[in-house]
């Protein structure tokens, strides 16, 4: 199988379902951001040894792939059902449970947290900021097309998860950095 098709050489690409759209379509921007976020999460995963955080992040990567598929779907009637592409609210619940689990061990915040600390925590902050950009691009899609509330909630919660995960990682190493007014 060849990886190149030559069908996108003139600025068009296909959505799931076959509809052709311009490569600057808001959906492509959004699912391109999801793909970038997934790549950053992959880098973060590569920095972790086996454990709960790594296992959970691998689930996040699979969920992000599903989320990108919902954005790449031609929203014509019946397409989601035809291709079996749905985004259940259980994904949001799993994130919230993981945020709560991680938060139980963290001290209360008394100042803003600066991105950084350990390498792993710094990667979490990169994931968090790319996730926020991704969220903004998905809202741009919502202004012109239907986007499920579950997708929007998931991306919003995911950035919170990366913040809490960064704090948890820095807490283990005593390397959390707080903002100090200059």
Give a quick precis of the structure.
The chain is mainly α and 182 residues long. Helices cover 60% and strands 3% of the residues.
Describe the structure.
- This protein has 182 residues and is mostly helical.
- The chain contains six helices and two strands, in the order E-E-H-H-H-H-H-H.
- The chain has helices at 26-46, 52-71, 79-83, 90-103, 119-142, 149-173; strands spanning 12-14, 20-22.
- Strands 1-2 form a two-stranded antiparallel ribbon.
- A hairpin with a 5-residue loop joins strand 1 and strand 2.
- The protein is elongated and about 50 Å long.
- The termini are far apart.
- The model has no long low-confidence stretch (mean pLDDT 91).
Low-confidence stretches: none
Largest sheet: 2 strands, antiparallel
Number of strands: 2
Rounded radius of gyration (Å)? 18 Å
The helix-strand sequence is EEHHHHHH
Give the overall shape: elongated
Helicity range of the residues?
55-70%
The structural class is mainly alpha
Rounded mean pLDDT score: 91
- Number of helical segments with 4 or more residues: 6
Strand line-up of the largest beta sheet: 1-2
Q: What separation lies between the terminal Cα atoms?
A: 57 Å
The portion of residues forming beta strands comes to: under 5%
Core attributes:
single chain; 182 residues; mainly alpha; two-stranded antiparallel sheet; 6 helices; 2 strands; elongated
Helix/strand layout:
Layout: E1 12-14, E2 20-22, H1 26-46, H2 52-71, H3 79-83, H4 90-103, H5 119-142, H6 149-173
Antiparallel strand pairs: 1-2
Helix pairs in contact: 1-2, 1-5, 4-6, 5-6
